[in-house]
Design brief:
single chain, 350 residues, conserved putative lor/sdh protein from methanococcus maripaludis s2 fold, Elongation Factor Tu (Ef-tu), domain 3, transmembrane helix
């Protein structure tokens, strides 16, 4: 019985010793090559000097430079004479308000003025030949002047019921349908010149201090310059109205369009990929390769443009910047520079 117990304790001691030796061997093996397992492969690029510009994308609206809306100056029934979209010359009658009384009054005043003028001219000839006194001639002249005044008044009322093209252009959308009763002040029809276009957009108040007329603008991959900017901020939108002279054959007036406005531009500054920058304790850092290790480097940022950012301090031309993979790194960790030729031999590559 005692021999059996001794045998059991002996076997348990052998098992415990085996487990201890196995654990020690495993720890020793993994700690024997710490440098190999801690080496990180990184992508780098050499810090260089180049230009950078800050661009903001805004939404503009295509509009004609010359446009207007014809407004009713008196009440009546609308009569549309030409369709929307028709190109017409300046002075062409587009629509009118039916008002027979005003039309008759104008035609009658024209006839009276013409008759008074003819009578005055005839009286003047008779006076020169001695067949008519000067007082009669003066009376005929007075009647003619009075007829001219009445005709002018009638013409003003007559023009109120007519809608004529103010310049060469295209008839736009009718605001009131044909046959509708319109009142004084009602919009009747829009009118514009499609040959001369502009893009209207708003510039945020936050960048207005950098904006001036003539600044570069890109619309539909074409370069333009800022034609006009109002140095006034709209209280509701907090934007400042701006305009660019624009040319486009197939554009739709009133449609929205992207506007890329260059806010600032700097030449010959240090520029790096923005993804190389990270935050730590509220400050900005990058990693650079220094003696085959990742060196934590504080930097100050300047202008940003899409995927690039200006570095105002912290880096110099020629520094080897770790461009990607910062999340796997810590200061002074050993690193190996990634090369395209050896990519197939890197961990995780097939």
């Amino acid at each position: 019985m005692k021999a059996t117990r001794k045998l059991i304790w002996f076997i348990l001691a052998i098992l415990a010793l085996s487990l201890f030796l196995g654990y020690w061997f495993f720890i020793s093996r993994n700690s024997a090559t710490p440098q190999e397992t801690d080496i990180k492969v990184v992508e780098v690029e050499e810090v260089g000097i180049k230009d950078i510009q800050q661009t903001i994308r805004l939404i503009g609206t295509i509009k004609p430079k010359n446009s207007t809306v014809l407004i009713a100056k008196t009440a009546g029934i609308l009569d549309s004479l030409l369709p929307a979209g028709q190109v017409v010359k300046k002075g062409t009658l587009i629509a009118k308000i039916d008002n027979n009384e005003i039309e008759r009054s104008y035609l009658l005043s024209e006839s009276v003025e013409k008759l008074a003028r003819d009578q005055y001219e005839r009286a003047l000839l008779l006076h020169k030949s001695g067949h008519l006194s000067k007082s009669i001639v003066e009376e005929k002249k007075r009647l003619w002047i009075e007829a001219q005044k009445k005709m002018s008044e009638a013409k003003i009322e007559f023009e109120k019921i007519r809608f004529q093209a103010p310049f060469d252009g295209t008839i736009g959308i009718f605001k009131a349908r044909e046959g509708a009763q319109v009142q004084e002040g009602d919009p009747i029809v829009s009118f514009y010149d499609p040959a001369s276009l502009m893009v209207e957009f708003g510039i945020p108040a936050s960048v207005m201090t950098f904006i001036h007329e003539g600044q570069p603008v890109r619309i539909q991959r074409t370069s333009y310059t800022l034609t006009k900017v109002q140095k006034m901020i709209d209280e509701e939108t907090h934007m400042s109205p701006a305009y660019v002279d624009f040319s486009c054959e197939n554009c739709v007036i009133g449609a929205g369009i992207d506007v890329d406005l260059t806010v600032q531009r700097k030449e010959k500054v240090i520029v790096i990929p923005f993804e190389a920058v990270f935050l730590r304790n509220g400050k900005t850092f990058v990693y650079c390769v220094k003696e085959n290790k990742a060196g934590l480097t504080p930097v100050n940022l300047g202008m940003r443009e899409k995927e690039d950012v200006e570095i105002t301090s912290g880096l110099q031309k020629g520094d080897i910047l770790i461009a990607r993979g910062q999340a796997r790194l810590h200061p002074d960790i050993a690193v190996k520079i990634y090369h395209q030729a050896t990519a197939s031999h890197l961990p995780g590559q097939k």
